[in-house]
Amino acid sequence: MNAPVPEQVIRMYEKRQPIHPRETDGRYARLRWLCLWLTQLAYYGTPWLVWNGRQAVLFDLGTRKFYLFGLVLWPQDFIYLAALLIICAWGLFLVTAVAGRVWCGFACPQTVYTSIFLWIERRIEGSRAARIALDRQGPSARKFGKRVAKHLAWGAVALWTGFTFVGYFTPVRELGTGIATLALGPWEWFWVLFYGFATYGNAGWLREQVCKYMCPYARFQSAMFDRDTLIITYDTGRGEPRGKKATGGACIDCTMCVQVCPAGIDIRNGLQYECIGCAACVDACNSVMDKVGQPRGLIRYSTDRAMTANLAPAEIRQRALRPRVLAYGAALLAITLAVGFALATRTPLKMDVIRDRGSMGREVDGGAIENVYRLQIMNTSEQPHRYRIAAAGLPGLALATDDVVALAATETRAVPVRVRVPGEALRGAGKTGSNPITFTLTALDDARLAVEEPAVFIVPR
């Protein structure tokens, strides 16, 4: 009888190995920190800016008004948000076609917050070697204290990030008062904690896993690459054969490029989808080349064509303006100019005309025909205005209600309007049934602020 086969467990996915990137210095490291400071100053500081006595940037969902400095947008202006998203998409296509995943490596929120959390980790737990040693240690009071301090600092940054996020939708000063007095509504509490938890989890725990498995950009970026796209490259011809002794290659196999990589990859194995283009390996390799007396650039920004054809930097720059890049640039410029023109010529006044469905047309005293409408008027500017209402399109057409209405800044009001026409003149001219008319709304203090809306006047047979 055959002996039983021992049970085996086959894992479909490799167990994640913790990555402890080494801290590096250099041109690209300083550029990454510059991008970090600029993006975070903009993110954390913008909600505190004041414009015309109110928050400069506020997406007030309760009142359905979106404030962008001097611009006030309403739900009817959703087209501008769609245009902004299109501009961002084309901008990303253009940058990717030229410089690969430079957005991921320098300005992506996942990269930025991971860098912040890594900086906190280094300040508390020490260098890469110290963090690896701490991971291997058994339970101790020292290890417990360092881990608690690190996670408390992470939590503070994450909660402040969630607070700031909600501050774009709820006035940030009111939000701060509500948190201090525990008087926030349930949705504010939910989103502060949810966004804070997402930041804590993504930047503190998941890190490179977000880029590898969760971000779709890493999957479709290759569709925008070609042989002239700038990527992080290893000069195989110059570096191989590698070794710590003088074997003919410039690479001394110090593995510094691997130790500083936040994704834990070896760029010497070629371009990989995990590479976010942060250029940390470039800084690390350049510092090693300086120490061993070799020229810099063993790992560098270059293109696939430049590496195979040995192109000079000037030739690489010449090939940057290729048809794909020009097409992306032209589309981006056209869309940006069109949106800018639309915003510059936008009239901060809107009017919708709604017929009174309960009265399709009635005869009043004196034989006149009267129709009733409701004008939904929106003053989308931040100045109060008085407007004159006028109607035209039929002989003798006149308003039977007050033709002047005053609206405060960013106010919306429904104004009932009764319009009359002499009945005999209409019937004699065969104007029974549906007749097109036009309502005009004009600001009394600025004739350029005017809108027209078509409507229908019903004359009963």
Automatic annotation (TrEMBL):
Pfam families: Fer4_18, Fer4_5, FixG_C. GO terms for molecular function: 4 iron, 4 sulfur cluster binding; metal ion binding. Keywords: 4Fe-4S, Electron transport, Iron, Iron-sulfur, Membrane, Metal-binding, Transmembrane, Transmembrane helix, Transport. The chain crosses the membrane at residues 31-51, 78-99, 152-169, 189-206, 325-344. Signal peptide: none annotated. Residues 241-270 form the 4Fe-4S ferredoxin-type domain. GO terms for cellular component: plasma membrane. InterPro entries: 4Fe4S_Fe-S-bd (IPR017896), 4Fe4S_Fe_S_CS (IPR017900), Cyt_c_oxidase_cbb3_FixG (IPR014116), Electron_Trans/Redox (IPR051684), FixG_C (IPR032879), Ig-like_fold (IPR013783). It comes from the Bacteria. This is Cytochrome c oxidase accessory protein CcoG. It comes from Pseudoduganella albidiflava.
